[in-house]
Structures are given as structure tokens and as C-alpha cells.
Amino acid sequence: MIGIYMIVGIIGSGGREHAICQKIYQSKKTKKIYCFPGNGGTAKIAQNTNISWNNTAKLKRYILSKKIDLVIIGPEQPLVNGMVDDLIKDNIKVFGPSKIASQLEGSKIFTKNICKKYNIPTANFGIFINKNDAIDFIKKAKLPIVVKADGLAAGKGVYICENVKSAKSSINEIFNGKFGKAKNILIEEFLKGEEMSYFIISDGKTIKRFQTAQDHKRVFEGDKGPNTGGMGCYSPSRLINKEMDSKILKRIINPTLRALKDLGTDYRGFLYAGLMIVKNNPYLIEYNVRMGDPECQTILPLLENDFLGLIESCCKKKLSKISIKWKEKKSLCIVLCSNGYPGKYKNNILINNTNVNSTNNNDFLFHAGTKVVKKKIFSDGGRVLNFVNLSRNFKESRKNILNNIKKLNWKNGFFRKDIGYKVIDK
Ligand code: AMP
Ligand code: GLY
After folding, report:
1. Protein residue with its CA nearest to atom 5 in ligand 2
2. Which residue from 109, 145, 158 has its CB within 8 A of the most atoms of ligand 1, so it is best to mutate?
3. Structural domains of the chain sorted by starting position, each given as residue range(s) with its CATH number in brackets
4. Residues 304-361: tens digit of each pLDDT
């Protein structure tokens, strides 16, 4: 039962899930944590399992046999697959949105149609079921133009096309099934502005703001090269203020929640609005039905509240009783990646010195693609480690992190030294 001393299950294996795990571990309400499957970092504070979340029947049996009181789902795929609905059927308490609500991330076209119906500001768009119609459209459209696959594509189904030739080839790739069977395609206007990740937490009745952040998606310094899962982040975003906050809630978040209500459902969990701020006005680029990665690693260390208490209040629909408090500090995160990422890279490379910063309250090292073999840490993914530091200002945070990365001295990795360049003077 939910109450004092809970056994918690966490689904996922990235940096986001290690950050969640660490915050749950610090809660006085936590008795034990199981990770499905977890990583080299969670292994130190939780019990990692080798149960994949794709095997829902086995996962459910395990959760019930270990008397897990509450399950937190980190990544989008199990949410979009409907894991929340599945666990609830067996009376398992779970934090995350339902399958219907998860379409906000699972189908860009679902979200665009809501935007249209509820007048939510977003890039002008067209939906095409036919390759030739799509190509005819771009021939007449203003460039650059954005071509998107409808479903989940791990951040890779979006093409910013500078000319008709590249737009044609992306339309072909999508219709040829690069991101799974494509019944239709989304083509939208390119919005020029600055991005912001905006988060809320909701229990289905009440919503609360849950910080802002600025991710750096491109692989190389100066925002060059291909898109990645995220190379680093800072929080809060430099674009947020009271006026912007109320514009976002009024024009984007509230009408979206109304749309879900009209569909006969509600929203429970974290909701992440990927926004473009154009001339001081927010536009919705996309929704994600979870915390961001690396936004989560950047934001959670700033949270003052007992995190498990906060999640529990959502499960009991008592979020209205909680006041969310943040440290008056700046947080910055730099992601250390395997050489070659987001292309091909090697796994299973030894990483020494992973306790470079464990003695300091303002330094955090969250594992992502790592695993433990015979008590040693090895790389096991493209994004490997997340270095986070809280300081009075972003410049100091970045300096402390660069120092820690130097101490780690991992020869197989690379990182962006310029994370936060828009908020840090040279
Ligand atoms: P998404 O997966 O939808 O977040 O898109 C990935 C990235 O592509 C976003 O973070 C933006 O940087 C960029 N992007 C997507 N849609 C647009 C748009 N309509 N205008 C400008 N940039 C966009
Ligand atoms: N940081 C981008 C994402 O989590 O989708």
C-alpha cells in the first residue's frame, strides 16, 4: 500500500532514470527501489533487474511478487504502448499518462489536430497521405521547411529542409518506412526563434509548473551537426518570466488539457512542452509525455521537495496540497558521449574514476549508457554520463563540470564545452 516506507519500481535505463532513482533514494519514504532494467549508476542505490519492459506479463508478475507499491515510468515508448493502462488493470499504482493521453507524443498528427481545433499556437502545417501531393506542396512552399514522421522516432523523424531536393528525399525516406510503416506525413512551416523545454506535473485534477530548461540537441559546438537525444542543458531557461509563463499556460497547456477532457480522459504525470519562442510569443513544437533527458538530470537536483512525496500526492490526486519549491541556484548539465555518437560507436569500454565528484553537495554524476561488470563500470550506449553542477551562476557551473570531466579523463568520450553559451559570457 502507498503510505510510509514504499517499495518503488522505475522503468528505464537512461540518465533521466538515474536522476529519478537518486531523488527517490533520498526520500525518507523509500524502503527499496527496483529498476527495470537500470544502469551502472542505479546499480549502486537500487536493485537492477534484467526484465525488459517489452515483456509486460513478466514485468507485472515481478512487480506483484516484490510487492512494489508504486511504479514510475521514465521513457516514452512504454507510455505510448499503454503500460499505464496495463498496470492499472492489475491494481498496480503507477505514475504516468494513459495510452490515450500519451498520443500527445506518440502521434504528432494527433497533437496538431488538437492545436487546430483549440486554436493553440503552432507552426502552420499540412498532413499528406500521398507522396506526390506532399512533393507538389513543398515545390510551392517557403523554405526552409520541416518534414516530420508521425510516430515515435527517437528524435530522428524530423528533417529541417533547406531546399526542395532534401525535402523530397526526406519524404521518400519516411514513406519508404525508415521510421516504421507511414500512412501519412506532416509538413510544417519553419519557426525561427529560441527553444525552451517547459514542464508541468499533473494528477488529473490539478496542474503545477515543474521548471523550465534549455536543451542543446545538436552534436557539435555552436549548435552544428546532426540532432542527438541532447548534449547538455541548463535550467531555468533564460526565456521564462511571469508574463511568458501565463501565456504558455493560457494559450497552450490549458487548452490541451481541455482537449483531453473532451476526449473523455485526463492527464496524469509529467507533461513536457517543447516550445519555440518567437518574438516573445510561445509556439508549440511538440509534446512529450514524460520528463526530458537531459532536462530531468538538470532540473531534479534543484527540487527542494521530497520527490516520492510529490509523486505519491499525484497518485492520490492530492497535488493541490503540495507547494513545489526550488533551490535559488542555476543548474547546468554536460553529457559525455561515446566517440562516434549519434552515429556508430563502441560499447564495453572501461570507465575509471566515476566517483570524481561524490563528496560535494552541488555536484552530481548521473549514469546513462553504463553497466557494471565485476564491480567495474563499462560504457553501454551513445550518451554515457551526465555531469551536473549547481552554482550561483551558469558560468561557475560549467567551469566546475569541465574540471570534473577532466578528472574523469575518459579517452573514448567527447562532449560539448559550450553548453549554456547563450547565458554565459566569454
Ligand atoms: P521534435 O522532435 O519535434 O522536437 O523536433 C526536433 C527539433 O527540430 C526541435 O527541437 C527543433 O529544434 C526542430 N524543429 C521541429 N519543428 C520545427 C519547426 N516547425 N520550426 C523550427 N524548428 C523545428
Ligand atoms: N531532451 C529532449 C527529449 O528528452 O526529448
Report:
1. 292
2. 158
3. 7-95 (3.40.50.20), 124-189 (3.30.1490.20), 194-321 (3.30.470.20), 330-424 (3.90.600.10)
4. 999 999 999 999 999 999 999 999 999 999 999 999 999 999 999 999 988 766 567 8
